[in-house]
Amino acid sequence: MPKKLLRRILPDRQTIERIPVSRRFSQRFDRPGLWLIEREAIARGLAVGVLCGMIPGPLQMIAAISCAFLFRLNLPMAVVGTFLTNPFTIVPIYMAAYGIGQWLSGGHASGAEWHQIPALPQTDWQSPLSGAQAWWQWIMDLGMPWVTGMLVLSVSLALLSYMVMQIVWRGSRYWHLTQLQTRRRHRTANS
After folding, report:
1. How many other β-carbons are positioned within 10 Å of the β-carbon of residue 45?
2. Amino acid 167: pLDDT
3. d(CA 79, CA 40)
4. Cα–Cα distance, 189 to 100 (Å, whole number)
5. b vs e for 80-97, b when ≥16 Cβ sit within 10 Å of the residue's Cβ?
6. Alpha carbon of 16 to those of 38, 69, 177, 188: distances in Å?
7. Do the Cβ atoms of 58 and 136 come closer than 8 Å?
8. Least crowded by CB within 10 Å, which of 1, 37, 158, 169?
9. What string of DSSP letters covers 84-141?
10. What is the pTM of this model?
11. What is the full per-residue pLDDT of the chain (191 aa) written as tens digits?
């Protein structure tokens, strides 16, 4: 059941090759394990994708693809995992990371107020160096609470996604087997 569903909904090799960022990796897409649809490969690919998706700026997909190659994880699931952070979720995730970082550093315990988060920088795709500098300056403006919170939140979400995928896969397999047994019992009772 999970294999059939994932084969149907995960992006295939041609879809990933059309992503501009992945074109530089296309000659390596034939490595073993990158397209394997098994419980462990899928769960690890999702976890690495979520972890890499928490990287600020435009490096998320490059990091996810690189990690998938390096650790031989499911490449489509790693790419899908990066979409946890998107224009709708980025602000709540970054605010949560900032709050976690302040809480861990003792900011709330000492009565300190929340600092306003600086506006997200504009990425100039014509000049990647200036875009990277703008993102670096934005991270430096957020300071240590945000960095600490992002590390804790990204590792926590990656572990959570790994465990949820394992539970969903095993639960789906269990449900499928119980349905199969029920059908067999029903068939033998009617015979």
Report:
1. 32
2. 95
3. 16
4. 58
5. bbbebbeeeeeeebbeeb
6. 19, 14, 33, 47
7. no
8. 1
9. GSSTTTHHHHHHHHHHHHHHHTTTTTTTPPPPPPPPPPPP-TT-HHHHHHHHHHHHHH
10. 0.74
11. 477 777 777 777 777 777 776 777 767 777 777 787 889 999 999 999 999 999 877 789 889 988 998 998 888 899 899 999 988 998 899 889 988 988 887 765 444 556 666 677 777 777 777 777 887 787 777 778 888 999 999 999 999 999 999 999 999 989 989 998 998 888 888 87
Structure tokens at 147: 């960095």
143: tokens are: 């300071």
- DSSP-based three-state secondary structure for 52: helix
Tokens 């970054």 correspond to: 94
10 Å CB burial of residue 102 (0-12, 13-18, 19+) is buried
